[in-house]
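Exam revision sheet. Question 4 asks you to relate a sequence to its structure. Input first:
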Amino acid sequence: MPQVTLLTDFGEGPYTAAMRGVIASMTGARAVDLSHSVPRHDVRHGAFVLWSSVPYFPEGTVHCCVVDPGVGTGRRAIAARAGGQLLVGPDNGLILPAARRVSEGPEIREVTLDLGESSSTFHGRDVFAPVAAMLSADLGFEEVGPVSEAEDLELFVYRETGRGIKTSVAFVDRFGNVVTGVPTEAVEGEAFLVDTADASRRARRVDAYGEAGEGELLLLEGSTGLVELSVNQGSAEEVLGAEPGEEVILKKKG
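Answer key, C-alpha cells:
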C-alpha cells in the first residue's frame, strides 16, 4: 500500500484533519504523521525533521511537507523526486536538504497542475495534499509541471578557525540535546570548551549519555552522525543557552 507522510507546523486540529481528509478521499494511500509539532513558521526546524526521517522510508513514499510562512505570496509549490521517494512542499528550502540526502541529483519540478480555486491561506489542504495524493496514486511525476530549480537551505555549516570549529545549532530536541552542524568525523579529541553567546563550558567526549556524570556536559555522536552536545539527565539547551541557528564554537583542549 502506498503511503503519504505529513509534516507541518499546524499542531493537531482542523488543519491537519483536513489534509488527512483530502488524501483519504483521493487515494487509498495510508497517511503517516512525521510531525505536526514543528515550531510555527520554523522552516529550518521542519527541514531538519524531514532530513532526519526520509532515509528510513521505503521507495514509493510521498512526503507532503507544509511549513509555509510565505503561503499566498509569489513563492512556488514544488515537488522533488529523490532516492525513489517524492517530496511535495513550498519552495522555501524545506524539502531540498532531505532530497539531497537520499539522492546526489534530485529532480525538481514546479507544481503547475490546475487544481482549481484554492485558499490563499491553506495550500496544505488545497495544493500540497492533493498533489501528494495524486502522486501516490496514478499521477506521473512528469505531469506535475516543468523541471525547475529550488530554494536551498544549508543546515550543516561549519569551518575551522583560529578559535576552533565554528558552527551553529541545527536542532534542539525535547530532551534539550543540542545538535550541531558538525559531522562527528571532523572532531578529534576528548576534552573541549564549548562557547556560545551566553556561556563557555567544559565538555567531555563520550560514546553514550550514561558514561558522563549526572548533570555533566558531554559531546558525542548523535543518531544523525552529527556532533551533539548533551547533559546527562539534564538539558544542554538550558546549560548553554543555545537555540537553533545560534553560533557555537568547539575548542579542543589539551
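Marking note for examiners. The CA atoms of residues 172 and 178 lie 5 Å apart.
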